[in-house]
Amino acid sequence: MARMNSASYEKLRSLSRGRFSPQQFLRLKELAANTVGINNSIFDVELNSLLTLYKSLVKEIGTLEAEINKLIEEVHPHYMSVPGIGPISAAVIYSEYGDLSNFSTPAQMLAFAGIEPDINESGTESHGGRMVKHGSSRLRYVLINCCLPLIRFDMTFAAYYAKKRAEGKPHRVAITHVAKKLVRVIYALERQGTDFNTQKLR
After folding, report:
1. How many degrees, rounded to 5, is the angle at CA 147 between CA 103 and CA 62?
2. Digit-coded pLDDT (tens) for 51-101
3. Number of CB atoms found within 10 A of residue 160's CB
4. What distance lies between CA 144 and its chain's CA centroid?
5. For residue 80, which of 93, 98, 68 has the smallest C-alpha distance?
6. Is-contact 195 90, C-beta < 8 A?
7. Distance of CA 155 to the CA centre of its chain
């Protein structure tokens, strides 16, 4: 604003339909120069340096993500067809679990991820709701986060989440149950060699 010129004023005057006076424009430039930020060349150099570093990191991240997308597309696990599991999430799941034939039951996959809730349940009451202290925290984080769009866009998972909430379970416990269901679905898809079909879920 402090560097605005007469052309800038004409644009502002036009937008204000002539109500923005030259005096107001000059006052605005003065306020912008003297009340906003600190005019210091050292800070300018530091900011430019940080922005250059940021742009470099963004470019590097983009390159890495493109390579990850390429690699996971080559593998193309069937669970990539599940709503909410994108290429990056699928890559994390694949890198953590590896060959799913190494797991003989979904329970083993749950234990590996550490998403078995440490809950004492009696009837419809849940006590605690903390995760067990083992398993891959990275895998657990991705699986839980995949469930958030899943309960929004898939009716079967949404109904399952709603059922758990109706039983009195808090959100984090209900979403953990959804994650457990998701792991069972992932196991079934890879074992059967088929893509996700919500009509076949129970």
Report:
1. 90
2. 999 999 999 999 999 999 999 999 999 999 998 899 999 999 999 998 888
3. 20
4. 10
5. 93
6. no
7. 20
**What is the per-residue pLDDT across 123-159, written as a single tens digit (0 to 9) for each?**
443 444 445 557 788 999 999 999 999 999 899 999 9
The 3-class SS string of the chain reads CCCCCHHHHHHHHHHCCCCCCHHHHHHHHHHHHHHCCCCCHHHHHHHHHHHHHHHHHHHHHHHHHHHHHHHHHHHCCHHHHCCCCCHHHHHHHHHHHCCHHHCCCHHHHHHHHCCCEEEEEECCEEEEEEECCCCCHHHHHHHHHHHHHHHHHCHHHHHHHHHHHHCCCCHHHHHHHHHHHHHHHHHHHHHHCCCCCHHHCC
Rounded to whole angstroms, what are the CA distances from 4 to 10, 28, 146?
A: 10, 10, 47
Report residue 130: phi and psi, to 5°.
Answer: -75, 155
Q: List the structure tokens of 193.
A: 């060699």
Amino acid at 35: T
